[in-house]
Amino acid sequence: MAGKPVLVQELDAVAPQESLAGRDLCSIADLTPGELAAILSLAHDVKQNPANYRWALDAKQMVMFFEKASLRTRLTFETAINTLGGAAMFVDQTQSPLGERESLADIARNVERWVSVIVLRTYAHDTITEMAQYASVPVINALSDLEHPCQAIADFMTLEERFGDLRGFNFTYVGDGNNVCHSLMLTAALLGAHCTVGTPKNYAPKADIVAQARAIANVTGSNITVVNDAVATVKGADAIYTDVCTSMGFEHEATKRAPIFKPWQVNEALMAHASPSAVFMHCLPAHRNAEVTDAVLDGPQSVVFDQAENRMHAQKALLLMLLGAGAKA
Ligand code: CP
Ligand code: NVA
Question: Of 71, 94, 208, 304, which is most buried, counting CB atoms within 10 Å of its CB?
Fold first, then answer.
């Protein structure tokens, strides 16, 4: 068995259970490869043995401030903390962005007196990093315009369940180079999986995220590739992932984007270019027969509802680690 590259060993010098306690998760790249592997390993165990963790976060309080709509993220965070013995408080910020009524610093300095963890879904990524800077308790990114790290953890947990060790795995993403795409690229790199992203011109992932993913991939031994051709993207893929063409906050661009993204639809013809054992992935909500056809979304290769289920298990593991309860209760 090949040893880990030197830099990875250096990054992972401290045991994840110790190094993650009290930390924030603003970007998936806040984690070292070893820390991500530890969260994933705990997520699998939590899924298999939920009773072992039933009271691991007894009486811990979690607050969730959401500026955008949510089904999966809200409910999986709530079910996660509730089944670990803690409680969730949801604050709907869709009508007034965070920082409007009161500064982020003042919100942080109030909330940290009452709760053990803050979960944020925002437009501006800076809102999350600023809250993390001010708050003494962990802050978790539950989606910003830049990233969706909790989604990516659950997605790669889903792939590990199916395929085991993901080093050398051919992960592909087709569509908008958006928040979900950014976190998936970084996660693939952290786990040593190859990642090919195909987008229409002008909709590529951000250059600095691509550079960051490539820097991590250089250490973990994978390749990060960005192309502008749908078939070339998915040739021989082990997983094909797509997301909506128009993310929350970009609705005013929907009419312009629809024809641009039409040739990028994941349909049975595109799936045929992937490996026969390839899975289809989507973070959901899907716009049926826009970025993906019903036949693929509901077809035998689709794992979209496993991904949705795993949001809960992965976030239980994340909460356990960040709140310093990573070991079995
Ligand atoms: N995938 C995801 O984050 O779904 P929600 O927007 O419903 O939370
Ligand atoms: N990219 C999508 C993901 C939704 C879960 C959005 O930001 O709207």
Answer: 304
pLDDT of amino acid 207: 98
Taking the C-alpha atoms of residue 118 and residue 312, their distance in angstroms, rounded to an integer, is: 17
Quote the ligand 1 centre to 250 CA distance (angstroms).
16
Partners of 241 in the β-ladder: 173, 281
Question: Residue 315's closest CA among 83, 97, 92?
Answer: 83
Distance, CA of 207 to CA of 167 (rounded, Å): 24
Identify which of 194, 167, 158 has the alpha carbon closest to the alpha carbon of residue 4.
Answer: 167
Q: CATH topology of 14-147+310-322 equal to that of 151-307?
A: yes
8 CB contacts (<8 Å, ≥6 apart)?
32, 33, 34, 219, 220
Average pLDDT, consecutive stretches of 10 residues, N- to C-terminus, the chain (329 residues): 41 68 98 98 98 98 98 98 98 97 98 98 98 98 99 99 98 98 98 98 98 98 98 98 98 98 98 98 98 98 99 98 77
At the topology level, CATH places domain 14-147+310-322 in Rossmann fold (3.40.50)
DSSP-derived secondary structure for 83-148? TTT-EEEEEE-SSS-TTSSS-HHHHHHHHTTT-SEEEEE-SSHHHHHHHHHH-SS-EEES--SS--
Tokens describing residue 122: 């925002």
Q: Which residues have any ligand 1 atom within 6 Å of their CB?
A: 70-73, 143, 151, 283-285
Evaluate: CB of 244 within 6 angstroms of ligand 2.
yes
pLDDT for position 316: 98
Q: Phi, psi at residue 20, to the nearest 5°? A: -90, -20
CATH topology of domain 151-307: Rossmann fold (3.40.50)
- Per the CB < 8 A criterion, the answer to whether 205 and 181 are in contact is yes
- pLDDT, residue 19, reads 85
